[in-house]
Amino acid sequence: RHKELLKNTAILAFGKFATQFMAFLLLPIYTHFLSPADYGTFDLILTYATLALPFLTLRLEFAAFRFLIDERKSDRGKTRIISTILGMTGGLAFVWIVLFAIVSTFVSVEYGLFVAMLAIAMVASGVFLQFARGLGSNKAFATASIIAGLVTSIGGGLSVAVLGWGIEGMLGSAIVGNILASVYLLIRLQIPRYI
Questions:
Q1: 60-74 pLDDT, tens per residue?
Q2: What pLDDT, on a 0 to 100 scale, did the predictor assign at position 186?
Q3: Cα angle: 128, vertex 129, 133; to 5 degrees
Q4: How far is residue 71's CA from residue 134's CA, in Å, rounded to a whole number?
Q5: Are the beta carbons of 180 and 148 closer than 8 angstroms?
Q6: For helices 60-70 and 75-106, what crossing angle results, to 10°?
Q7: Cα–Cα dist 159/138, whole Å
Q8: Is the pLDDT at 27 greater than 90, yes or no?
Q9: Confidence (pTM)
């Protein structure tokens, strides 16, 4: 048990550390090519998207993690939990999109489409990451975290330094990184068989 705990802790820590370390290494590139106002706007958008997550998911992904642990040996139990969580978070995401579309017709939100897309991508990756943990697939969790971090960091650095896309490039990289992590987990965990 102690060996298993240490191994799982090391895998999860590596996944998180690698992601944060890559972002830290690319910080000088971001601050060199973006003005302080642009970088502040990017950081504010990430903060808004992160703050929106509890309202978009009602933190159901953590419920999935908790209850999947109990149902690891039951395909029927896993199907019930995963289907329920996907249905509810999908419904909440749809409500978010409709509300955002209504509000954006009356209020102009700078980079609004990026904010909406980033929030949805973060919801998807968050849910699938917790599925991975709940199903006991810590290596898939760490790999998906690394995929999201590398694509977000390297894509953001290239889009800012080489392509000159600024905030749009950084936000686009974050969206693509979260989507690729979700697709990886969707395939790796064989989620469709539990729906």
A1: 888 888 888 888 888
A2: 92
A3: 115
A4: 9
A5: yes
A6: 180
A7: 31
A8: no
A9: 0.81
